[in-house]
Amino acid sequence: MFGFDFTTSTSWWFVIVVLAIAGVVAWWYYRRTIPPISLKQRIILTALRGIALFLLGYLISKPLLTFIVHKQEKPAIVVLVDNSKSMTLADAKGKREDAVRAFLKSAQWNDLASKATIQPFIFDAKVNKSELAQVDSIRFDGDATKIANAIQYVTKHRSDIPYFGVVLISDGNFTDGISPLYDVLQLGVPVFTVGVGDTTVQKDIQIKRIVTNDICYVGNRIPVTVVIQNFGCKGNQVDVSLRSDSGIIAMQKVALENENGEYEVQFSYVPMKEGMQKYDVVVSPVEGEITYRNNQSSFFSKALKSKFQILIVAGAPSADVAFLRRAVERDSSMTVSFLLQRPDGNFSRESTQQEIEKADCIVLIGYPTSASSLDQIEKIRGQIKQNSKPLFVLLSRTISYERLSSFAQQLPAEIQSISAAEIEALPSVQQDQRLNPIVKLGRDIDVLSAWGELPPIYTQPMNISLKEGTRTIVNSVRKTTTFQPLILTRTVGNAKSCMVLGYGLWRWKMMAESDKPAGSVYDNFIHNTIQWLVTKEDNERIRIEPAKRIFSSNDDIVFSAQLYDENYQGIDNAEISVSVTKENETYECVLASLGNGYYEGSLERLPAGSYHFVARASAQKIPIGSKQGMFTVGEAQEEFLETTMNQQLLQQLAVRSGGDFVHISEAEKLFSKLNSLSPRESVVHTHTIEIDLRSSYWMLALLICIFSAEWFLRKRYGLL
Amino acid sequence: MAYYNRSIKIIMMFFLTTLVSSQNVFPQADSQFRIGRLKYSGGSDWYNDPSAEVNLLKYAQEHAGIDALPRYEFVEPSSDRLFSYPMLFMTGHGNIVFSEYEVKQLREYLVRGGFLYVDDDYGLDKAFRREMKKVFPQSQIVELPFSYGLYHCWFDFPNGVPKIHEHDKGAPQGFGIFYEGRLVVFYTYESNPSDGWADPEIHNDPPEVREKALRFGTNILVWALTH
User: Fold this and answer.
1) In this model, does residue A494 exceed pLDDT 50?
2) Distance (Å, whole) CA A535 – CA A532
3) What 3-state class would DSSP assign to A205?
4) Shortest alpha-carbon distance between residue B104 and chain A (Å)
5) Chain B: residue nearest A329 by CA?
6) Is any Cβ of chain A less than 8 angstroms from the Cβ of B181?
7) Is the pLDDT of residue A515 over 70?
8) Percent of chain A having pLDDT more than 70?
9) Which homologous superfamily is B2-226 in?
């Protein structure tokens, strides 16, 4: 039933007065015309003028038009249909999805329609409206079953329409979200659960879980534990294999000796290159399995560089050499190779080009000296320059500044002149560098005071000029006056260097009291400096990642990106295009700017498989950079881990809500139960619609039309 | 102008190089490597052969490039000056006694990174082992195998510690105390290399024996200053 009321906010007396005035003014205006017109014509014009004046006068009172709509609605039966992939499984009695379709097509729904409105919804991880007439279009392709979410959705919309009851059609296996048993109590209407599937265990073998490291180191052997679950495949033997893009890494045969049970298979692999790598575990199929889709599972692992190689090159044995070497060797993430120069300029052992090449950081202590071989210096310098290797330089009394100038390009400062006189100097961390990573100490330790308690080390007065990109972290202080820089760092592009313009640093370790903060400065300083030097800043100007490593076939492929200029300020006006390829198929996607250098974009669902993507960024047609990576689109395994119907849950849902449970094969019972329920009364819903006439465009249009009509007729009648 | 500046720099650098990098012009300086002779109590002659480490430091300067100050310096275990020496040397013929404070101080010295070389000049062994047990109660004094790096790090000593002076006709032995994997105390027994370091007229050792002793001593210094 549908009806409405009309009210106005203005007093009827006001309306009458305005109407009278408008009528009189209109009559007065058209009582005589030149040339004279017929009475009929005069009445029409008077009416038009009168209506227009009345409306104008009426609008002055800010009239509010109120429509009150009454609608009588029947109670509803909500039908929740499980749209997840587990509904595609085939039990002994046939395919679950076929049974659901047949049930929804039943003519008995029409009988129920006279009693209640049928409101079908399909649900997986989300809930969507559907129609009984569109049963064949249900795809049963959801990657998750979130029954609680579906019940919450119904609860949320309960106030819109009275519910007769809820019919839940599912296998009862929720693979996402919380248990629906709590939410069903909040619903307040009976839930009639329709079980789909079989409670007897079906023949199946599946990968239950994979346990391995998400992050590992190149060259280290990584264990992978695969747990496979066997249901009713006794007497079979399966091949369980671990695979990567390059093929099968390892394979094991597993004899399924029991009717049911778990089998643990141990694999291991050695990642040979840095970066993200996808691995698959595959179990060979056994004939008659309920599904083969849970026989494969994938995982990603990121391989990091195993250990940092630190090459220490010493001009001669010294306490600084021993203390620094010990401090570096104490760090388990670093391995040290050591070259010690003999007085004749050669090293105490043969240095190989490879060990210099492999070094992630080169530390020069008192090297080079005047005896140092120029060939050796060039070998080291060449590697530092060519590969932007980090450089850490500590001076000594016997260092050759002339030969050290071979490394001038990489050093933070150029030493222009130096005195042979040796002086003691205290370190003093620059106030604005107290948070610099190389001087940091433990939490709650005041960096400035801890460094201020250190004993003096030695330096020589020198004139230096700092290079571009150099920071002075610590100064040499004599008699409370800053004398000259002591510790300098420099970052230019990818190249980092640190230089200590002094020697005798071992005294910081030996002479500072170990139970005071100053006692921890030396080890922290060496550790922090090497760490800072070997850490490659993520200074790529384009950064782009897919939202997930493994997308389900229902997911949109979302990419997010960040783009920076040379000063690492976000670029907003660039174009970022992503090209996604799989074998011969290519998909293109353009990311949209979100501001501050952030971009986002997505591709619609992609077929299952491994994809490689290349993102290219350009601004004003000038390329900025590119980035590539990989992701996988595959089926969610969760939907195939439980292949039997969870009848217990469905029964509990029904009992708790005051409904009932039936198996889909006994659908007749459900309809008779629903029909036997005492009908609920219809509910009248009242909706109020208010219209402010003065701000209504329709009213403006009406006035324009009336005045236009009057003007047109006056023209026609020869009054203009 | 740029050419002029560059020329000035080259001339200055040449001058500095001549001034700074020649061994002969390095003046003595506090920063140079020195060995502290440990002045312990107990009655033994801690002070014997004062020329020993002086000669060793000269030798090591020449043959290993160690920037050393060849000077005889001694230090009491109770002194805070202990920590200004990266290496200590202890020798003698008799008893050693460390007070409780000295034990604590010596342990702290070694834990922080110091190195102690002890040479039994004859009759020091029993007292040394007893007193070192106080310093490192949990650590054993272990004999170092011939393959240990100290015997090969600069000069090669395939048979370990060389025999410099005869004491009880025993085989020369090298022992060590390790702290967190680092050799912190090296002890030579039935060998007496430090006698070989002393001025030639003191023990009248033949030149080849002195050379062997100094070479071995250089290995000790190089090991201590690189590990």
Assistant:
1) yes
2) 5
3) strand
4) 13
5) B227
6) no
7) yes
8) 96
9) Domain of unknown function DUF4159 (3.40.50.12140)
